[in-house]
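Sucrose transport protein SUC3 isoform X1
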Amino acid sequence: MAGKSESVSISVPYRNLRKDVEVEMVAKHQTENASSSPLNRGSDGGAAVGKDCSLVTLVLSCTVAAGVQFGWALQLSLLTPYIQTLGISHAFSSFIWLCGPITGLVVQPCVGIWSDKCTSKYGRRRPFILVGSLMISIAVIIIGFSADIGYLLGDTKEHCSTFKGTRTRAASVFIIGFWLLDLANNTVQGPARALLADLSGPDQRNTANAVFCLWMAIGNILGFSAGASGQWQEWFPFLTSRACCAACGNLKAAFLLAVVFLTICTLVTIYFAEEIPLASSKPSRIQDSAPLLDDLKLKGLDHSRSNNGIKYEKVERDMDVQLGKANNEHQDETYIEGPGSVLVNLLTGLRHLPPAMHSVLIVMALTWLSWFPFFLFDTDWMGREVYHGDPTKNSFLVELYGQGVREGAFGLLLNSVVLGISSFLIEPMCQRMGARAVWALSNFTVFACMAGTAVISLMSLRDNPEGNGHILPNETTRTAAVIVFALLGFPLAITYSVPFSVTAEVTADSGGGQGLAIGVLNLAIVIPQMIVSLGAGPWDALFGGGNLPAFVLASVAAFAAGVFALRSLPTLSSSFKSTGFHIG
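Tokens:
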């Protein structure tokens, strides 16, 4: 090793290093100038610092975010209403959303670990992005054609316009496709995030985050626009059938459009993202939950500086021993990093977190308890409480319900526009107010908006006191509902970014376990989602089957989150660096 003239790079993942050793040690020949040797990614892909790529490459490498978000927007706006047309009651429609948090809890961390170790010649992330995109395409096709598949498998032969019962086989096919879609979304999500981090250098992180959020906003806007149109079945009439009426034909066409858009975005990402394959002979990762290099004692590191570079006089042999141990640990990880081990690492890792992180987890859990009822029932609330429609009644009520769903999708479109604009305001707000106050402000905004849905529901009930559904809501009520949807884009932008930045700051001096902390933070997201998925429908059924009871509980959770954030979160610095992404 000492006798070779070329450089030898010892790369250790920077997230596992303490600040005083957050370096990459490079041995250079004495005649080379040390100042002319930037810290680039090595051939193993495991170097601490990546070389900046061009802005154009960065932009084009993130397009898959728009494709995935397009389908997610359709999923949010159309699928809860559609499952009810297949005969699944409103009380049980929330159960189908249970797969999202489950796969987010298990699949996403595992895929992240597996992509870290992937030694494909096409790179670490792109194979997972490609496979996940193919799974999304298959899933949305299954969902779109679920009524036709159920018809072929033996569902009723009565025309869909007159039959109001349960189509069991179609609903079963739909649920299979829906769960596959959530699985596929989480398969793409982790590698897409990691790819952005791989490609962007340290000075490009904020730019990369802004680009990623921009593509998400574009995907949301296009997806909600497709959901709000409600006319796809008229443009593609051949998609309707005896088992698939207007709502089904609209859904089918919109999802086929999503497949085309996702395919284009995925191909662009795969082509322009220039990954360097990971060499299988070198360790690419050290466990986040492990003691952070406490045992990696690099004693005897004596080096002399000269004008021409850095020359190591000692410890080559000691370093080889340490790297050999790391290689053996890397080989052993293959057998222990299954889904069960990931969950065990996350749960046992709670004790390694700093005390302030526990407050962050509580606020995060309350925050998502307030958000998920809205995600679940937003367009359904517009169709039922605002427009007084019902997807299981006569044709007039079905049409009213469809109008409400389309109006809700339009509100979500405005929500995405506000979210995109607000993302540029978060950094100056955090610098002026502090991240704690900004996070609390977002929760109080959610509280006000969700309480506003109760007021709007009462206004709508006043317009139709008999509840016969034959009177359209007045313009004021409809406008107020759309405004609430739009305003929620502001706190949503904060929810998608500030908690991750707070987590990064709280854990910055904890020995480098930020990867573990983000994994634990994910628990505070998915567990509330599971609670809402299991309880929201039955809870609403206790009060007559509407969405308002879940929204009222959401407002209470949001208020509690805001108060707890102000009282329990630590005082944080005024600096802000966006580290959080959200896809689906």
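The mean pLDDT is 75.
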